[in-house]
Amino acid sequence: MHYLLKSEPEVYSFDDLLRDGETTWDGIKNPQALITLRNMKKGEKCILYHSNEGKAAVGTATVASVRLDPPIPPSKMTTPIVRLKAGKRLKREKPLAEIRAAKVFKDSLLFRQFRLSVVPLTQEQYDWLVS
User: Fold this and answer.
1) How far apart are the first and last CA of the chain?
2) CA-based torsion, 56, 59, 60, 64: positive or negative
3) How far apart are CA 117 and CA 32, in angstroms?
4) Is the link from the previous residue into 74 a cis peptide, with omega within 30 of 0?
5) DSSP symbol at 131
6) Looking at the predicted structure, is the pLDDT value of residue 17 above 90?
7) What SS3 state is found at 8?
8) Residue 102 in contact with residue 127, Cβ under 8 Å?
9) What dihedral do alpha carbons 11, 14, 20, 26 form, nearest 10°?
10) What is the secondary structure of 76-105 as a DSSP string?
11) What phi and psi, each to the nearest 5 degrees, are found at residue 115?
């Protein structure tokens, strides 16, 4: 599976990931997004999307590792610790308007639940974003 990860560039940008080489993808609070993070597997591909400012898919990353920390009461849910390894900048950024207009994203969770910061992508959607 592939994923689109949203980040506010003023908080952590794709350039920051390129500089760091690898990072822990944290700060996620939404239960549905946490489930998606928990389901990630080492080696899966991701697209980084700059939200708020820029509003475009900008680069790729790979899931380097996923560790599940024991639950901290009262949550009873394990917290996924996802490490991302920097990939490459897209040859051309894909702005939100262009993604929204693409047929491949017609029924995407990306637009049904726009506030999610982690969204699964189909192979076709991933391929469209990196093309």
Assistant:
1) 17
2) negative
3) 10
4) yes
5) -
6) yes
7) coil
8) no
9) 50
10) -SPEEEEEEEEEEEEEEEEEHHHHHH-GGG
11) -80, -10
DSSP character string of 31-71: HHHHHHHHH--TT-EEEEEE-SSS-EEEEEEEEEEEEEEPP
121, 129 Cβ separation under 8 angstroms: yes
Mean pLDDT of the chain: 91
**Residues in Cβ contact with 43 at an 8 Å cutoff, skipping those fewer than 6 apart:** 62, 63
CB atoms within 10 A of CB 107: 9
How far are the Cα atoms of 6, 50, 82, 130 from residue 54, in angstroms, in the given order?
Answer: 11, 6, 24, 17
Distances (CA, A) of 59 to 68, 90, 91: 26, 5, 9
Q: Which sign, positive or negative, has the C-alpha torsion 61, 46, 88, 20?
A: negative
pTM as predicted: 0.90
* Spatial separation of the C-alpha atoms in residues 97 and 57, rounded to whole Å: 11
The label of the residue with tokens 């609070």 reads 29
Residue 113 banded pLDDT, cuts 50, 70, 90: confident
